[in-house]
Amino acid sequence: MGIAIKVGILTAPKIEFEQLEHTFLLKNVRIGIGFHWDRHEDQEFQGELEIRTNPDGTQTAINTLDLEDYLCSVISSEMNANSPMELLKAHAVISRSWAMRAMEHPNHEGFHVCADDHCQRYEGLLRMNERAVQAVRETAGQVLINGERLAVSGEREICDCRYYKCCGGRSEIWRTCWEDIDVPYIQSVECPYCGRVSAQTLRLVLNDYDQETKDFHDWKVTYTDDELDGIVNARYPGIGHITALEPLHRGASGRIDSLRITGTNRSEIIGKELNIRYALSKKCLYSSWFEVSHANSLWTLTGHGWGHGAGLCQIGAAQMATEGYSYEQILSHYYVGTRIGIAAK
Ligand SMILES: [Zn+2]
Ligand SMILES: [Zn+2]
């Protein structure tokens, strides 16, 4: 094994597994946790399996395997096999960069990354496809390096390559979504590409369950007063009947990162973008880039994009690849001032 990564996989309600000759099967793996595509599936994995019982009685399966093999599954899980090769290669580089950073600074206790959208989708072997494997092999060891840091101090910092489904026309900066810092390679860049993607390209790049999502570039959500009261009071009990939704601050793309929700009993100021998406949906809004209107007892949110918007726009990158751009060009468009380097083993 080269570099080994530990992946935590959540199953529900408890872990059931079956050892096969060279692999193992986990039953009822939960994917899309908390998102609108939340569901259970059986999945097959390679590498080592360890089962941990958590203090709250739930169990986590921890799968240890080679980083490059992990990436083959991630690229197969995140992207359809029929995607253009340059898109798959771009994704291999960013998923590798992201994973190597996560190994240095894990977001989880006891393992480096989880198998779900919270980290990167890792759905084992069942969706594994040869073209994703080819993309990982042809970019073996390649990571994105922060160009500004390299110029200033000579340090080779691996980029924290965030990505999402669709920017909606303009990408977002770091501080709208996470900490109040400037990340030089996460700038707000114009993306004309996701807006002109064809239905045919979408069918090539999205996995089946992502194709259930329609109108993600420009979308509209409508609630009656009662519906919105129900949604918001479920998250913020006792706030009362909702009388106003006021965006207090927007990021560089237009995504709201501070929203005041006023109810008849009190008001709440909510941020950043993901909390806003949870606050105004039974599951999660496509994005926090929306305008609010209220008329005739109906709330209408008119929005753009699918995801946080910081870093690479997957659908825009797919369109760039279809238009003949190389994976290096795709990466330098969405991650400003970066260069490709080889990760130290
Ligand atoms: Zn995670
Ligand atoms: Zn885009």
Outline the structure in words.
The chain has a domain of 87 residues. The chain is built from 10 helices and 17 strands. It is globular, with a radius of gyration of 21 Å. Helix 1 packs across helix 2, helix 1 crosses helix 3 and helix 2 packs antiparallel against helix 9. It has 345 residues and is α+β, with helices and mostly antiparallel strands. The strands form 6 sheets. Strands 5-6-1-7 form a 4-stranded mixed sheet. Bound molecules: zinc ion (ZN) (2 copies). The site of one zinc ion (ZN) has 6 residues, from strand 7.
Tags for this entry?
345 residues, alpha+beta, four-stranded mixed β-sheet, three-stranded antiparallel β-sheet, 17 strands, binds zinc ion
- Helix content, binned percent: 25-40%
Give average pLDDT, whole number.
91
- What is the molecular shape? globular
Please, how many helices? 10
Strand order in space, largest sheet: 5-6-1-7
Rg, Cα atoms, Å:
21 Å
| Total count of strands | 17
Unreliable segments (pLDDT under 50, ≥5 consecutive)?
A: none
Termini gap: 11 Å
List the bound ligands.
zinc ion
How does the helix and strand content classify structurally?
alpha+beta
The biggest sheet amounts to: 4 strands, mixed
Strand content: 25-35%
Give the ordered list of helices and strands: EEEEEEHHEHEHEHHEHEEEHEEEHHE
